[in-house]
Amino acid sequence: MESRPPLPPFTLETATKKVQAAEDAWNTRDPVRVSLAYTPDTEWRNRADFVNGREQVVEFLTRKWEREHDYRLRKTLWAFMDNRIAVRFEYEWHDAAGQWFRSHGNENWEFAENGLMQRRFASINDQPIDESERKFRWER
């Protein structure tokens, strides 16, 4: 059986590591790599999209990062208990026309015993910003 430490139940230290691992993976913008952190039958709600299973995760993330250019993400642990973690996040990106956005949101995660995420629920709001207002400017 696949395993993705740290495993639940989470402590402050292991929940923080899990959040950092997710941030690092998502910043690669590699849909296949990101999908491997989820159970094969994972269930997502991302805004108004419902995604089921790794194959749909890869398809969803491929579409996402085709639209969201120069994506840079920060995640922060908000709360945790047993096999669940709540996260706050912000990410910046621009569209094909060059308009920059900062997207803010919250995610609720539920993990299987093997440390793979089985459920992900994300609520996100986009705020148009000027390029000069960007906060996340690190190199890729």
TrEMBL record:
The lineage is:
Bacteria, Pseudomonadati, Pseudomonadota, Betaproteobacteria, Burkholderiales
In its UniProt entry, the species of origin is given as Variovorax paradoxus B4
Name of the molecule in the record? SnoaL-like domain-containing protein
At the top level of its lineage, which domain of life is listed? Answer: Bacteria
Q: Which PANTHER family match?
A: SLL0781 PROTEIN
Q: Which SUPFAM superfamilies match?
A: NTF2-like (SSF54427)
**Entries under InterPro entries matching the protein:** DUF1348, NTF2-like_dom_sf
Q: Which residues cross the membrane?
A: none
